[in-house]
């Protein structure tokens, strides 16, 4: 597929819009909307569309997306548990991110992804 600059500009603007919305709602302390924005399936649907356009394996893309979402959910679960026990956001994030990357490494190592 021949990509042109306008396609990349549109994709860039959509991504920028999501980050701006996230910043706006966090600034106005709207925690509910802030928690919904990262959960929107926009990136998944965009990826699905791009894989479809390139005649890629949609079933594999969807299966791998489910597996990566499971890792993300585990990251969030570990983060909330650490926040409750350690009461330290920086340390909790550091440990959670470390375990997040370890999980990805293990998923690759054992060919789960």
Fill in the keyword field for this structure:
mainly alpha; 81% helix; 113 residues
Summarize the structure.
This protein has 113 residues and is mainly alpha-helical. Helix content is 81%, strand content 0%.
Notes on the protein architecture:
- This protein is mainly alpha-helical and 113 residues long.
- It has 2 domains: 1-39; 41-113, no CATH class.
- It contains 5 helices and no strands.
- Helix 3 runs antiparallel to helix 4 and helix 4 (58-86) packs antiparallel against helix 5.
- It is flat and about 50 Å long.
**Could you spell the SSE succession in H and E letters?**
HHHHH
The secondary structure category is mainly alpha
Q: Which consecutive residue ranges, at least 5 long each, have pLDDT under 50?
A: none
Q: What is the percentage of strand-forming residues?
A: under 5%
State the separation between the terminal residues, measured CA to CA.
26 Å
Radius of gyration equals 17 Å
Number of domains: 2
Total helical elements: 5
| Largest sheet composition | none
Give the overall form: flat
Average of per-residue pLDDT values: 93
Number of strands: 0
What percentage of residues falls in helices of 4 or more residues? over 70%
């Amino acid at each position: 597929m021949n990509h042109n600059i306008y396609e990349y500009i549109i994709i860039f603007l959509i991504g920028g819009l999501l980050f701006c919305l996230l910043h706006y709602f966090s600034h106005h302390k709207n925690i509910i909307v802030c928690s919904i924005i990262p959960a929107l399936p926009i990136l998944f649907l965009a990826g699905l569309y791009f894989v479809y356009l390139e005649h890629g394996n949609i079933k594999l893309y969807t299966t791998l997306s489910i597996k990566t979402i499971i890792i993300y959910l585990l990251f969030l679960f570990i983060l909330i548990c650490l926040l409750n026990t350690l009461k330290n956001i920086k340390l909790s994030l550091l440990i959670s991110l470390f375990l997040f990357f370890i999980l990805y490494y293990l998923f690759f190592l054992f060919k789960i992804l």
